[in-house]
Amino acid sequence: MTTNLAPSRSSATLSTGDPAYRGRSRFRKWLVQLGWRHAIGLVAAAFALFPILYLLQTALNPSGNLNSSVRGWLSFVPTHPSTHNFTTLLASKEYPFWDWVVNSLVICTVSTFLSIFISSLAAYAFSRMRFAGRKAGLLAVLLIQMFPSFLAVIALYRMSAAAGNVFPMLAPGRVSLVLVYLGGAMGLNTWLTKSYIDTIPIDLDEAAKIDGASHAQIFFMVILRLAAPILVVTAILAFVGTLNEYIFANLFLASSNGIKTLLVGLFQLGNPYSGNYNFGMFTAGALMMTVPVVALFFLLRNYLAGGLIKGAVKT
Amino acid sequence: MAIRQGAPINSASTGRPGRSASAFLPADFRSLPAYLIKVAFLGVVVALATFSMPRLYSRQLWVPFAVVALATILILWIYLGKHRIHLKFLVPGTLLLIVFQLYPIIYLIGISVTNYGDGHFINKQNAIAANIADSVQAAPNAPAYSLAVATRGNPANPNARFVFFLTGSNGKVFLGTTTGLKPVSPRGLTLAPTGQVTVAPGWSFLNPIEVNNLGPRFAQYSVPVGHGKFIRSVDITTAQVEQATLRYDQRADELISASGVIYKAVNGTFVPTKGSGQPLPTGFEAVLGARNYTSIVTDPTIRGPFLKILAWTFVFALLSVGGTFAVGLFLAVVLNHHRLRGRNFYRSVYLLPYAVPGFVGILVWATMFNKQFGLINNLLHVHVGWVEDPWTAKFVVLVTNLWLGFPYMFLVSMGVLQSIPSDLVEAAQVDGCNGARAFRHVTFPLLLVTVEPLLIGSFAFNFNNFNLIQFLTGGGPFTYNSVTAGSTDLVITYTYRLAFNAVSHEYGFGAALSVLLFILVAAISVSGLRRTQAFRTMT
User: Fold this and answer.
1) pTM
2) Which residues of A touch B103 (CB under 8 A)?
3) Of B330, B341, B364, the CB nearest to A51
4) What is the 3-state secondary structure (H, E, C) of B482-523?
5) Domains of chain B: total
6) By CA distance, what is B491's nearest residue in A?
7) Complex ipTM, two decimals?
8) Are A43 and A96 in the same domain?
9) Residue B395 belongs to what domain range?
10) Is A73 among the domain residues?
């Protein structure tokens, strides 16, 4: 970009009084102060964008044929845009896209809502109360999450299957999947929320207390409202995290003739090692999944940066 | 104290409101909605308990019964009391944590000291029975029978009880049941030309399809005839006398084959006591103690690949954190200039890789690096098998992870940079620091204090970054001298393959590896966190 702006005339032909020279020196100043920043920024922007442009292009490329989707630099321009991949995916009976979407939405919304609520309850206790085992509890909450839990799927699956013999509702399926996700409710989110609540002046609690508020009322009326920014951040991260979960979703929804989650469903289309590999359809589905998530991130991007930092330490 | 008793001590100082109009209500009654929510919540808990406990009791599931009972009592005790307020807030998450995280971990630790896995899924008694059943062969000079299957019930029901009608070569008919063989009087019987009974009074005969529907119940049906021999079906119309070549000596706890080889159980596997013959095919789940753990160190065939993978896991996690942080911070510093236009544009663009669901990004990168139709090869006019060479595959993994991770670091660094008061930096510059020195000695240390915990979190996350490796390279490429350990394998993907591979299921060893992995990550994270400012202020 910057090279395009560079004048083509050679500097030797210019005298200092020449207005073109003054323009040039101003440009040079701009180059030294800001221009190089733009150059670096644009290189990074290209790096950030090109897989996304490629995704966009492949989704709009009618053939769905990989060889034809790669045409050098033209690969970033949908030369013959069409909605073919989208209509094929949405019309296919084998891949019930909308059922996956609804399934994922239900699972992610329920588990996000409950887990944020449970996690902020705990965060309130950790932040505002002093009790035996508080420090150990905080550390344990963080450490337990670090256990590579995928092997635990065996234990959890057996547990769910055994419970399903007595209570059919708890057999591997949506309900048990949400419960398994809720097992991780007290984790990193609790830490982030706790650190954020630490920054809310305790005078506010005291004032509410003097007005006769109970702990529950302080929590619901004061803390939850003031902690809204971090709750938004943890909720997005929890929602996207659940949306991106593969191992448990794959196992718990596979046995029944139930509906897959969006990720498990799309993965069979996008996995180059799978027999159903269809990259065109995958990109169409992936794009439809990506757009709302990206929109959400954009709407809340100011919260996001602030929340991540404020949650990390008390300031 | 006595003096203060009479003093008009206000309720505010104790945090309790004075009683006025609501004096007749419970002391902790403060608002109707809150009270109703509490009652509803406890009502649901009690309802769930009364619904589930009789069921668990009638099925004699004592452990779950006790767990539900204890949990219910605990919840009622905590929420009906006025004290233990912190527990009221901690109980929901803690109960879920215990059931869905802690219990599986304890279960896995239990498995990690056993050989649970291929050939070792069942208990000893069943393994002995399975080996004896596997050793069954036709007895020498075994008489053959023509076979018909009959039932007193509905022949179309695959779960109905059935018997064997067996016709010997001399035309005599026997009734074979699981208790033995007894002769049948020929009155009322009709025999097919090939010998099978087709009509017998009081019995319905199964047609071939119905016999087939019985499945393993038919195949495993055996009629004992004494001396360790029994009659079993050969196909749906014939049966023969068979004999197990193995027998179990209960007193010596040995399995003895017909040829006299003695098998004894060692660590859940039946091995010959003499010589170096093959062990029996079916073993059982046995406690090995620390063997799974020690074999990681002592067994060179395990130690070699494991150490290689462990080293790469560390390198990968360090380079990932270092790379993403360096790029993110560099961009934040470069773009954090008050006169730079388009800062919002850059911020929005850099947010994109963070916002795109991780697996979508990973699969797009995997496709771009494809050898035949990948975009990268196409643009560079080369024909490189990126994920086929150990070194380029590592490069692919790191580049993809840089793309996935730098936006987060940028976002955080940018936020922190903007929150650092500018007068601090200006003061340093007044004191004669140039821009670089001011950054090194003022800005960077302040920034590091804030992001340290995030860097440690990122390290722990990347140490176990399962999705990236699994979706991008599958742990590969695999070379001739390491078939099980891939060049980009992290400990976690290696363990996953050991446990959930199509050909092998080494749960015991996999569990031991994941326990070890947990100890490693936890130790690193705790020792790292302890040094951070955030941790010190927390405690």
Assistant:
1) 0.74
2) 155, 159
3) B364
4) ECCCCCCCCHHHHHHHHHHCCCCCCHHHHHHHHHHHHHHHHH
5) 3
6) A148
7) 0.79
8) no
9) 298-538
10) yes
